[in-house]
């Protein structure tokens, strides 16, 4: 308490550059280092937020069991935003204003990250792994470190696979928000590169209020394949509706299209859907990374392995590597420099390399998988 009072008084009296240095100790004590995250743990994408929490906490517990970061235990401050950008901004604004966190990690959603990016840029706080692959977020920002491959890369791979199969007449069903509209633009460009254009473009509200009409439009058009640029519970309704109204149509989607609870809800209806993957299959323990992840999850009592929690685990490991390199007396500016300097980091079969150039994007990992009846890739 006395130290906190001293720092607060000193900050008020000090010149601007000293106040900035003192502020960089936010979220830091002699024994702990607090990391902030805003994501949906309620609402239509609640399972995505829960995956983030489980994967992050599993990684932190594993790191802390080995002594933490230079003797400090990592801890997570996670705030629910229900996938509402205004709440995401309010959460991050509170974390910054109250000096609660040393860095940000894995905030979820394209419109949500668009809402907080100005706050992140202005504050200079290190931000690792925005959970969005939107190219609109990948600017020359010196304190933002993306991990996953981009949505554009995912779209290009999916379109190349579909057109390579000789399919023509590919419809795009997209979420009617910043995420979905950007994916529609990417899909349109990718199809044009293959000499095609979308056979149909259908917008679906995030809350699914126009779901029946969207399904009817696709069924009437009878496309050869449907690319789902959607996320969360609305994807479940689309898949079920299309299975009934347009049987035989090939369904494909991006990595956020079907989070873990959506796969459970779909059951047999999910079988045969092709999805892009930005992390390895969390059930196949061929890679050391996946074995480490599974061990960490089991240690926390979690027997369910998901791409979302594996991605959060990876993101936490990347942040921890930067913190280790920062040293025993961490400052946010030092963490930014340490992360930017990461080259050829092997997390056990998963490579991360920032190459010192903005926009910082660490991973190019990308694969395609087809779901089986149990909601796992086959």
UniProtKB/TrEMBL annotation:
One of its GO terms (biological process) is amino acid transport. The keyword Cell cycle does not apply. It comes from the Bacteria. Gene3D superfamilies: 3.40.50.2300. CDD domains: PBP1_ABC_ligand_binding-like. The keyword Signal applies. Residues 32-346 form the Leucine-binding protein domain. Residues 1-23 form the signal peptide. Belongs to the leucine-binding protein family. Keywords: Amino-acid transport, Signal, Transport. It comes from Paenacidovorax caeni. This is ABC-type branched-chain amino acid transport system, substrate-binding protein. InterPro entries: Leu-bd (IPR028081), Leu_Ile_Val-bd (IPR000709), Peripla_BP_I (IPR028082).
